[in-house]
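Researcher: Go.
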Amino acid sequence: MKPQEQSILITSCFGHFITHFNMLVFPAVVLPLTGHLGLDMAQVLGLSFWMYLLYGVTALPWGILADRFGAKRFMLLFFLGAGLSGLFAAYWMDSPALFAISLAGIGLFTGIYHPVGLGMISKGVERMSMGLGYHGMFGNLGLATAPLLAGITNWLWGPRAVYVALGILNLMGMGMMWVLSLTEPKGETEESVSEADNGLLQAFIILLIAMMLAGLAYRGSSVILPAYFELKNQGILQALSDLWGGDISGNLVATTITSFIFLVGIVGQYAGGRIAERYEPRFAYLAFHAVSMMAAFFMAITHDLPLVVLALIYFFFLLGMQPIENTLVARFTPQRFHHSAYGTKFVLTFGVGALAVKMVGGIQTTWGIESTFIALGIVSLTLVAVVLLLILRTDPLPQSPATASRMPKATL
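Model: Structure:
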């Protein structure tokens, strides 16, 4: 890998880690915040609505700006803005209104990352699919680290310290960019220019619908998972308490299990990147979502160890499909608009996905927390139908030159 490709990949991988860290800290401290603020769970979940909404709906304007003015300055703005917003969230935590505004700031500036970072990889890393796989692995590391660090930090110092740590980690990204001397990506990706500039509009629109549904599934499951484990894994909690010889924090156990599941999701991201590089990505995308759909339905009727096993399967495939999905975005859109294309994706996946916060809160209040995974299974069932439509309405994607060069040549 060329030095510039290394700088792009390191910066984007750290940015992806921070992005998901920023978004997954809040679910890990939902129950502690109910006690700190004196609110019920639905009210605390509602404080994050603008954070998740802005995280998604600003992605397209950030992507358009990055296509117009370059990616580097927006990466710096991401680290600075999200870092300061995290520190403000810690300072204003006693006021629900000001805390919600600070969370909104985290969402606004964190929304920069995906259209900018993914566009940098698609434009500047030759083995794009594999680069997206590594990129996804670090995103999963952020998913895994956030609940664990948040749970430990909350246990030791309370929820305010959690957001102090978030702010410091984001500000560290600015120093990393300075050390790496990152420059704007100018190289071509693994598609040729002619292929990249022949974007398939109809296919991209169908793919957008699928990605919107995937965003609902991802946000809904990730925002409820720590609390779901805390309520449904009482057998595991009791067994650990007996083994420990005393009381143990239910929140710490739930967040630790959540972190382990997202950590295993790193393997799913790597597998997704390899599969997207070697095989037809449309069929891989279908298979990954079909498996996660079945796991979601069974998660609604299980608890303790069977629930943990099903959650491992669910998130392995739900997260592992992301490099495949991002490969499809790049294949179906012109290269010169990749920042905007990824921005459009994340408007739907995270902007519309923010509605999952309201959906989960409403379902939990009306029908009980178990019903959330029935609803998420129905979302995934619809998603599978949309992916089947995508396959029917498109031709097989051309094999990438990077992959083709490693395959044996046919002989006559």
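Model: The mean pLDDT is 83.
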